[in-house]
Amino acid sequence: MNVSDILIHINDSLSEQQRKALEESMRQIDGVVAPRFNPGKEHLLLVAFNPDATSTAALLAQVQSFGYNAQLVGA
Fold first, then answer.
1. Where are the beta strands (DSSP E) in 1-75?
2. Angstrom distance (rounded) from CA 10 to CA 23
């Protein structure tokens, strides 16, 4: 299995509950290994995923489906 990382910048300020809900939602996507926010960087979502099973566009679309303004970093 191939594993890649993508960083998603979320412009909105999310509460801890919103961040946890988003992480859990990302875990439901086939191919996502580990979505996580790091303390002190609550606007950055790092997602480890299998690029053979999902795409960066699908991951970004999932974040945006919550109504958040977000973009891929470095893409």
1. 4-10, 32-38, 41-49, 70-72
2. 13
For residue 64, the enclosing domain spans 4-72
pTM across the whole model: 0.92
Q: How far is CA 18 from CA 1, 12, 24, 56, in A?
A: 30, 11, 10, 21
Q: How many domains, the chain?
A: 1
Burial of 26 (0-12, 13-18, 19+ CB in 10 A): buried
Residue 73 DSSP label: S
Could you read off the pLDDT of 5-35 as tens digits, one per residue?
999 999 999 999 999 999 999 999 999 999 9
CA distance 21 to 50: 21
Looking at residue 64, its amino acid is Q
What's the CATH number where 22 sits?
Answer: 3.30.70.100
